């Protein structure tokens, strides 16, 4: 207390100066309209700028949630556009009613949004890590998509994270078809650039053209039909000359991929379990015959 009193006594003239300055400012701005309006405008500008900065910071930290919602919405819209396009084709008699029945099933799918926390695009065995796991309903062999197309298949699952085998992995093998043509093949990546892949084993009698889109076929127990994969760039003969090898530009930009959705559907899970049971049965019968 004594030190405080000594401090106040030593610098009392400064405190008196500050008090007089405050009193003079109040009198000046209160009883002079011009100075008062100038002060009010300046204060508004400063306050407004502070509010603007605060809003920008709040907006920045909310972008993660916004991106997740947009990714999920884009995925739904992609399927709706695909469904409408197929209906139009069926009306113009350019395709069969087969597609329409498949796309009707898309309403039953639930999409689990996730964020990519680790990713590589320059290795033969590229892997991707997402921030959702078994605690969020993720399990092995679920399909993963983005707002623009196919991403990959869930391979390993922990409680809060999962490993995905993306299309950009030489072991990836996804059943696809040429949109509105009905010809099937298998999507494979042979390494190299991250925006090109190949649809292999397309039959020689297939009729299609450059620029046609390739989508998932729905014949696997992982992806629903009609999810965008890419667009045809070139056509080559296979090594044995018995089929076509179609080069695609992938619709998903894996180098910039941040937000994805995992497809959760009970019917697809049931199909996968039946397929596994059938494979186990075949293998068991084969061993018994030997």
Salient structural properties:
Thrombin, subunit H; alpha+beta; 290 residues; single chain; elongated; 26% strand; 6-stranded antiparallel beta barrel
String of helices and strands: HHHHHEEEEEEEEEEEEH
Q: Compute the gyration radius: what is it?
A: 31 Å
Kindly report how far apart the N and C termini lie. 99 Å
What share of residues is helical?
40-55%
Q: Which structural class fits the helix and strand makeup?
A: alpha+beta
Count of strand segments: 12
Largest sheet: 6 strands, antiparallel, barrel
Give the helix tally: 6
Poorly predicted regions are 94-106
Kindly identify the CATH topology of the domain at 109-275: Thrombin, subunit H
| Order of neighbouring strands in the sheet with most strands | 1-2-5-4-3-12
Q: What is the assembly state of the chains in this entry?
A: single chain
CATH architecture of the domain at 109-275: Beta Barrel
Shape: elongated
Reading off the top of the CATH hierarchy, the class of the domain at 109-275 is best stated as: Mainly Beta
Pfam family, one: MreC
Transmembrane segments: 12-31
Domain Rod shape-determining protein MreC beta-barrel core: 116-263
InterPro entries: Cell/Rod_1, Cell/Rod_MreC_2, MreC, MreC_beta-barrel_core
Question: Mind explaining what this structure looks like?
Answer:
This protein has 290 residues and is of the alpha+beta class. Among the domains are: 1-29; 109-275, Rod shape-determining protein MreC, domain 1 (Thrombin, subunit H, Beta Barrel). The protein is 40% helix and 26% strand. The chain has helices at 2-10, 12-31, 33-61, 63-91, 98-103, 266-289, and strands at 110-119, 128-130, 143-145, 150-157, 162-166, 174-178, 184-188, 196-203, 213-216, 228-237, 243-250, 259-264. The strands form two sheets. The protein has a six-stranded antiparallel β-barrel with strand order 1-2-5-4-3-12. Strands 6-7-8-11-10-9 form a six-stranded antiparallel barrel. Strand 4 (150-157) and strand 5 form a beta hairpin. The model is unreliable at 94-106 (pLDDT under 50).
């Amino acid at each position: 207390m004594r030190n405080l009193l000594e401090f106040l006594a030593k610098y009392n003239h400064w405190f008196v100066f500050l008090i007089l300055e405050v009193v003079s400012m109040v009198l000046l701005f209160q009883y002079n309209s011009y100075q008062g309006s100038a002060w009010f405008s300046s204060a508004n500008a400063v306050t407004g700028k502070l509010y603007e900065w605060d809003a920008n910071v709040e907006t920045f930290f909310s972008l993660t949630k916004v991106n997740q919602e947009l990714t999920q919405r884009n995925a739904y819209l992609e399927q709706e556009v695909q469904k409408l396009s197929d209906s139009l084709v069926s009306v113009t008699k350019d395709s069969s009613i087969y597609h329409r029945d498949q796309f009707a099933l898309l309403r039953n799918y639930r999409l689990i949004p996730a964020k990519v926390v680790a990713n590589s695009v320059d290795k033969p065995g590229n892997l991707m890590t997402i921030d959702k796991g078994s605690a969020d309903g993720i399990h092995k062999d679920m399909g993963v998509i983005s707002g623009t197309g196919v991403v990959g298949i869930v391979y390993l699952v922990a409680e809060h994270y999962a490993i995905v085998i993306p299309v950009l992995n030489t072991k990836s093998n996804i059943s696809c078809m040429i949109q509105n043509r009905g010809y099937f093949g298998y999507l494979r990546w042979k390494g190299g650039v991250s925006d090109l892949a190949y649809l292999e084993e397309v039959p020689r009698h297939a009729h299609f053209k450059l620029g046609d889109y390739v989508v998932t076929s729905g014949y696997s127990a992982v992806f629903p039909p009609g999810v965008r994969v890419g667009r045809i760039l070139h056509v080559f003969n296979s090594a044995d000359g018995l089929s076509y090898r179609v080069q695609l530009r992938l619709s998903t930009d894996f180098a910039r991929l941040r937000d994805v959705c995992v497809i959760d559907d009970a019917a697809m899970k049931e199909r996968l379990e039946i397929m596994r049971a059938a494979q186990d049965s075949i293998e068991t019968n084969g061993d018994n015959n030997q």
